[in-house]
Amino acid sequence: MGRKFTTAQAALHDLLDRLEANPAAKRLLVKIDRSTFPTTREADEFEQGLKKAAEAGTVALKFGVRRDRGTISHATLLDSPALYRHLDRKPSTDRVRETLDSYKQVSRPEWQIKLISEVESTWSRNRAWYGISVGNMSMIDALLNMADAISRGDHENLDYRTFSRRIGGASKIVERYEVALLRAISFVMEVPSGKPREALSAIGLDKVSVPFHVSGPVALDDVPVPLTVPYIAIPHQAAGTLSLSRRPRAVLTIENFVSFHRHATEANRDANDLVIYTGGQPSLGFRKSMAVLLPQIPMEVPRFHWSDIDAGGIEIFKTMERIIPGLKPHLMSRDLAETRGTRSDRPIMRAGSSPGSAIESLAEYLSCERPFTLEQEELDPEPPDLTWSH
Questions:
Q1: Tens digits of residue pLDDT in 21-73
Q2: pLDDT tens, position by position, 317-326
Q3: For the chain, what is the HEC assignment?
Q4: Which of 35, 213, 302, 376 has the fewest CB atoms within 10 Å distance of its CB?
Q5: d(Cα 264, Cα 275) in Å, to the nearest integer?
């Protein structure tokens, strides 16, 4: 379906927009269909606008034949510099250069110079840079400041809005421009893989900082948590007050909060196992809390993780596997997926994506044609099987 315009000016500007987006484009044209105009007068005014542009040597007009003879069928871009002059419009490269000239005069770190160069290249094609509209230098400034602050660790223990307000000057910048912020960060440090929110969380910036949820034989300031309390939730900054009150039978980390809550209240009533909620893909705060707790757990205590049987669950398992050595999957098997899950219409994992992982065989299954997936909420909680073997 062709583009629809109400005025010749809009159609001519669109020709230049497309040229700026793709300078190598050949034979850019705009088609005219008089039947799409509400009135004959509007169609006539549209054609008159194109004829004036043609008289200025900017476009070549093609007329219809037979019963459409005498009406314009389409206009082809002929001379772009002439069209810029006709529309009294500056090329995007000139506009962006003028916008950035004074900005580029400031002495900056090499990573910022490279980022600004990428922004200039994108804006010169009249395209937004990761959602930042052409010329919005105040937002580029905010993102540069935020990326710099994150590289120094000034974001830790702050939520999206507090960090945005303190560093960027407005409370919703991170929420609105997660991808742009990650791109900016990538110029100064390595960015974790995963969805934008997961990657920012792994760096240490969370929309809302999820407390550290633990069920089992734990104590706070050396005071054991009673069995009448199925689990506790503490800020990550307070993880140093957490200790084991006795040796756990097993360690189990759980991706989903509903499954964690059910497991703590239904399958871990005697608090024999140490059960921990990961909050999805583990955040930096979670990793720091685990770094406090893990050294207290004897190496011979079996360790398990329970996630959805899907691509996200596999990635979370592999992340947890790097945090907790010797991790094994819990309620994550092909048999469970095929008996309780839903069939996918395509492979959801890339073959060979999890070599050497305890979850490798399940990941390979998910790379097959039409595998089954399973959300962990579909299953009732049960304690880990200590006889598990890979």
A1: 888 888 888 888 888 888 888 888 988 999 999 999 998 988 877 666 678 88
A2: 999 999 998 9
A3: CCCCCCCHHHHHHHHHHHHHHCCCCCCCEEECCHHHCCCHHHHHHHHHHHHHHHHCCCEEEEEECHHHECCEEEEEECCHHHHHHHCCCCCHHHHHHHHHHHHHCCCCCHHHHHHHHHHHHHHCCCCCECCECCCCHHHHHHHHHHHHHHHHCCCCCCEHHHHHHHHHCCCCHHHHCHHHHHHHHHCCCCCCCCCHHHHHHHHCCECCCCCEEEECCEEECCEECCCCCCCEEECHHHHHHEEECCCCCCEEEECCHHHHHHHHHHHCCCCCCEEEECCCCCCHHHHHHHHHHHHHCCCCCCEEEECCECHHHHHHHHHHHHHCCCEEECCCCHHHHHHHCEECCCCCCCCCCCCCCCCHHHHHHHCCCCCEEECHHHCCCCCCCCCCCC
A4: 35
A5: 7
The tokens of 23 are what?
């300078």
Give the count of beta carbons closer than 10 Å to the beta carbon of residue 380: 11
- Cβ proximity of 34 and 73 under 8 Å: no
- C-alpha to C-alpha distance for 94 and 262, rounded to whole angstroms: 61
C-alpha span between 59 and 224 (Å, rounded): 82
Dist. CA 42–CA 193, nearest whole Å: 52
**CA distances for 359 relative to 319, 328, 347, 375, angstroms:** 11, 8, 16, 16
For residue 182, the tally of other CB atoms under 10 A from its CB is: 21
| Per-residue confidence (pLDDT) for residue 67, from 0 to 100 | 63
Positions of the chain with pLDDT under 50: 1, 390
Backbone angles phi, psi at 181, to 5 degrees: -65, -45
| Model pLDDT, residue 1 | 40
Measured CA to CA in angstroms, residue 40 lies from 4, 7, 73, 102 at distances of 16, 13, 15, 49
Give the model's pLDDT for residue 192.
84
pLDDT in tens, 239-262: 999 999 999 999 999 999 999 999
Output the six-digit token pair for 327.
């991790």
What's the CATH architecture for 212-378?
Answer: 3-Layer(aba) Sandwich (3.40)
